[in-house]
Amino acid sequence: MRGYRGGEILSHLLLFARQLKERGLKITPDRVVDAARSLSLIDLALRQDFYLVLKANLVSSLKEAAVFDLIFEEFWSRLPEEESPKSGFPRGEMEEGEEPGEEGTLSMSLEWELASGEEGGDEQGRRGAYSQEEVLLEKDFSQFSEKELGILEREFTRLLAHWAIRISRRREPAARGREMDFRRSLKKASRHGGEFFDLARRRRKVKPMEVIVLCDVSGSMDASTRFILQFLFGMGRAFPRSDIFVFSTRLTRITDILQHSPWPQALAAISRRVRDWSGGTMIGHCLRVFNEQCAKRVRAGSAVIILISDGWDRGEPEQLAAEMKRIKRKARKLIWLNPLLGTPDYHPFCLGMRTALPYIDHFLPANTLKGLRAMGEILVAQSARG
Fold this sequence. Notes:
The protein is an alpha/beta fold. The protein folds into three domains: 2-115, no CATH class; 172-204, no CATH class; 210-384, von Willebrand factor, type A domain (Rossmann fold, 3-Layer(aba) Sandwich). It contains 15 helices and eleven strands. The chain has helices at residues 6-22, 29-39, 47-58, 62-76, 103-115, 123-138, 149-168, 182-190, 222-238, 255-260, 263-273, 283-293, 317-330, 351-356, 369-384; strands spanning 2-4, 91-93, 171-174, 179-180, 201-204, 210-216, 242-247, 251-253, 303-308, 331-338, 362-365. The protein has a six-stranded mixed β-sheet with strand order 8-7-6-9-10-11. It has a three-stranded antiparallel β-sheet with strand order 3-5-4. It has a two-stranded antiparallel ribbon with strand order 1-2. Helix 2 runs antiparallel to helix 3 (47-58), helix 4 (62-76) runs antiparallel to helix 7 and helix 7 (149-168) runs parallel beside helix 9 (222-238). The longest helix has 20 residues, at 149-168. The termini are far apart. The model is unreliable at 1-7 and 86-130 (pLDDT under 50).
């Protein structure tokens, strides 16, 4: 029987299961044992088979599936190439009679690993965690060291998974929905002396909100661009109907790259496609291209539009004002994220930013997790309104 050497993959599977549990999935030792045993029955070099086996064993609902997809892509794409399921985990022949793992030992290991992710601890430990979280939320992306980048990536995944769960819980009344609406059923019963003559139903809302992002990749944005694009990469999975553009002196659509490539390859592909990376900034001109070529298909008030830029513009302020006015008419909400806004004593002195401000619904920092989290909360709130 062909299989894997338990120690070579089990440690990664344990870490992956722990991350899923931390994001709210109902992960138990038995489930992970079943997943580990199932992996011995497939070719680990086939990434799709690997994905499906883990999903079948570790996911039990639609909302968990959305979270699983986000964490799977982020977790397994970070592994070294020789350990990634894309190229296959190290494999080898088992000795005759050897089992994929000893269930008792594996279960005990999983109990310890998964339990260590549970909430708890003394009050001092909780206060320390809260303090560290606040520091992390306020820290400028450019100040993260190489060793801290993994922490930042995990926080991106945690935020996105949280929003995906909240969006997946959206429900609407339905004549033949699969779920009973207890609140509406009780309200109906109250009209008949508490008798349940008719049970109200509900179903999951299936029409996701449209999100359009235009991100400045000019030279003045270099310190934050990589982290913002990485966040947008994950956001495209939390908000499937998202369309993402980058601009400097010209407008370039990158939605297809972010949807179909793992993050490291996506970043390389974006740098090849965007010919004006780290150049000057012509915000008004790029917005005119967007309004004339891309915005026509967007119904008025149907999309949340996000602009990410520091506001430094080499174009004419009259053109910027005119194009901002056109975008404002299209947008359900217009959000502007500025990496300079998170710096002490910032004031929007530059002409481009002053020109754009009257048309903006929300003005947020783009260089901290706090700013990105605030943006996400706005998106989730808008999504809940349908």
